[in-house]
Specification:
- By secondary structure, the chain is of the alpha/beta class.
- It has one domain: 3-Layer(aba) Sandwich (Rossmann fold).
- Helix content is 34%, strand content 22%.
- It has 6 helices and 9 strands, in the order ββαβββαβαβαβαβα.
- It has a 7-stranded mixed beta sheet, with helices on both faces. It has a two-stranded antiparallel ribbon with strand order 4-5.
- The longest helix is centred in the middle third of the chain and has 20 residues.
- The radius of gyration is 16 Å and the shape is globular.
- It starts with a strand and ends with a helix.
Length: 205
Amino acid sequence: MLNSEFIPAQDQKSRRLLIMLHGLGDSTAGYRRLPSLLKLPWMNYLLVNAPDPYFGGYSWYDFAGDPHPGIERSRKLLFELLDQKRAEGFPTEQTVLGGFSQGCLMTWETGLTYPHLFAGLVGISGYIQDEAKLLKQLSPVAKQQRLLVTHGYQDQMIPFPAVREQVQRMRLAGLNVQWHEFVKAHTIAGDEELDVIRKFIEALY
């Protein structure tokens, strides 16, 4: 079971949920300001810690070795978490799954293979580990999923050109990907990027 932190919406009746997956070495603590930054009073938030300890934070998969076993394990854990939230009254159809860096990779992996339709998917400064494998595992509703993917020209950890080419190939495969480029390094580009994310989420409902 994944450790998570729930931040309720101001509207106590809201079933809308944003699940946020952090990057390598980070934790839920890095995203506690997200509700105040996105300014969506009707949104509940679930901040999730990855399963593996990593230098004071957590990791979704083995960054230095073979990533595939860890990705598959983490995807299974996220499926279980999504099933749990559905049982608690948070429909996947009103849930946005988002992530940064490693969390973005897990958003691709989970969002496109989970059998239910999300409100939307948000991937920030990440990539796909194995495109061919992921395309073979797509859920029946994968091509109906709405994705926002953002990346920075100055990203030195995950090079921009390779990610842009990945996104182009995924679009050619029939996926509905909205792509935004920013002048930024491996980070979230402040108000400019948050505004794009906010408007994408608002348009989903």
